[in-house]
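Researcher: Here's a chain I'd like modeled. Treat it as a single chain, no partners, no ligands.
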Amino acid sequence: MSPVNTIAPSAGAPPLVPTRPAPTPVAEAVATDLAPAKTVTAASPASAGHNDPDTSDQYQHTVLLDPITRNLVFRTIDVRSRQVVRQVPEQAVLRMQAYARALAQGKSNTEALTQADLEA
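Model: Modeled as a single isolated chain. Structure tokens:
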């Protein structure tokens, strides 16, 4: 497979934190006395999500053209280990498509297995 295009991570804008207006007091609120085990506490503030700039440089996104099936293959590669973290469609699916295409072209079972590289 030969690389067609590499998508570089963008610096992007800083994450937006929505601001909420202060709650208006309820006119008919009633004070309650609950045991500490039955009370509700406020959640801690959320940490930075997917827009965290520290994690954007860990992965490289590439788009490849599979020469046998002529399908686009999207890969996410870990920059440090150079291993494929995720691939769509998966390698097994590409091999099955190549095998089915070879059989449809009238090739023998052995030729189709060799062309699809199913024994690898």
